[in-house]
Amino acid sequence: xxxxxxxxxxxxxxxxxxxxxxxxxxxxxxxxxxxxxxxxxxxxxxxxxxxxxxxxxxxxxxxxxxxxxxxxxxxxxxxxxxxxxxxxxxxxxxxxxxxxxxxxxxxxxxxxxxxxxxxxxxxxxxxxxxxxxxxxxxxxxxxxxxxxxxxxxxxxxxxxxxxxxxxxxxxxxxxxxxxxxxxxxxxxxxxxxxxxxxxxxxxxxxxxxxxxxxxxxxxxxxxxxxxxxx
Length: 230
Prior knowledge:
This protein is an alpha/beta fold. The protein has 2 domains: about 15-165 and about 210-225, Spore Coat Polysaccharide Biosynthesis Protein SpsA, Chain A (Alpha-Beta Complex), CATH 3.90.550.10; about 170-205, no CATH class. The protein is about 35% helix and about 15% strand. It has 7 helices and 8 strands; from the N terminus they run βββαβαβαβαβααβα. It has helices spanning about 50-70, 90-100, 115-125, 145-155, 175-180, 180-200, 215-225, and strands spanning about 15-20, 25, 35-45, 75-80, 105-110, 130-135, 165, 210-215. Its main location: endoplasmic reticulum.
């Protein structure tokens, strides 16, 4: 209703390349290419040098174990550095060297553009048949990816190969309310009411970082992204 035209998608010349584990520049893949991985994990990061290692350790431990159990399962973890001013780049490059650039990649934006823009860059540079958005804070247990995978599977048949499965914390709401201040609880319910009243009545925003998309759904969704901030 409010969008006047399609968003202008522009990528800086420096953002068309990434530095691999050996320190060499490689061209960034495109979502328009044929997928070569089963799963791409996109992690937007801004000043996350402290929280990112915990998330990366848990994610890579899970993904490596899963690959050993099923050699046909292939993955990549894409960390998008959204103009961090701390040591986020250095932290991620240590994982690139440990696991190799085929499994862990660091893409950096020239100028901080916001979480939405960072996720889009990672999605557009992914090689997976399925693409998972995951937050750098590790607030969601990574093994719970199996729940959103099950949700995606249950949506089949996918119209035009498009489907999206979003993680939910609705079942934890009573516990979280008990731990919140009255003011935060009031804000939460007020926000839920506005979403219900102004937008959609069947969907509740439960603030979970996990969102799993098919490749085609990711292309269609992020090609029309207008809001690039958080």
